[in-house]
Amino acid sequence: MHKSELERDRLAMELEEERRLRETLEHRLAKQKMSQNHNNTDISVEQFADSSQLDVLKTPDSKRTPDGFVASRSHYLKDAEFCPIPENLGSVADEDLWMQLNKGCITDLDMLEMTSDFKCPPSPEDTTAVVPLEEPIDVRCLRLETACSSDRQQLEDSKARCTTLEKELELLKEENSSLRQELSKSKHDTDHEKEGLLKELETEKYKMEELKQDIRLFRQAFSQRQGHLTSLYTKSKAIVENCKASRVALP
Predict the structure, then answer these.
(1) 145 located within any domain
(2) Distance CA 58, CA 67 (A)
(3) Does one domain contain both 156 and 207?
(4) SS3 state at 109
């Protein structure tokens, strides 16, 4: 029975784990459906933006920017061709002061080397879900549908396993109930047999006490009879002695 209870607890834990997994998969499917609906909404909005109906919703001053439009830089954002003239000449260091501050070190610009481009390797968490920025909508929808199909299959497998575990759990519960009934019945039979044996033991004890009493009475009777026999033997011996003495006394 202890083994059956352990097996039942193990199946209950597995069933709970399968239920949590099923809830996780259902949550993921719901998120992916929401993402697909969002993508479909984006596509419909883009198509609606390309149509003439979107112009009705725009303000009168807004105009559609042509595809070949390139924003140009303002004239005041150009790079300065020379350094600005300092306003306070007293704060500018001359060559002698610069040599003193720099300790006579002149930087050779030709000796400087540019640092090569460093590409940070992708983290292990991001390698599984790397999605290109310019992913086509059809490819993205196909990928999401494939992921949804895989998740649905996993969900169906989890449901099937959950159903199997529930059936096994029910069978174990029935077996455990049957074992408990058998245990209760055997315990009742054991108590009944124990009660019968105790009664028989009491009867045997009573018989033994009666037998001891009979032996005691027989011993007393035997002792009394032995006393009587001894006295009779003594009397008969005295009579015989008297007879012998009387015979000797006669001429």
Answers:
(1) yes
(2) 18
(3) no
(4) helix
Distances (CA, A) of 194 to 128, 148, 180, 189: 70, 67, 21, 8
- In the chain, where does DSSP find H-type helix? 2-50, 54-57, 95-102, 124-127, 137-249
The answer to whether residue 232 sits within a structural domain is yes
pLDDT tens-digit readout, 11-66: 778 888 888 888 888 888 888 888 777 666 554 545 544 544 444 444 444 445 54
Quote the number of domains for the chain: 2
CB 175 within 8 A of CB 8: no
**Distance (Å, whole) CA 139 – CA 124:** 24
| CA–CA distances in Å: residue 160 to residues 18, 80, 155 | 10, 73, 9
Tokens of 240: 């015989």
Q: What is the pTM of this model?
A: 0.32
- How many other β-carbons are positioned within 10 Å of the β-carbon of residue 4? 15
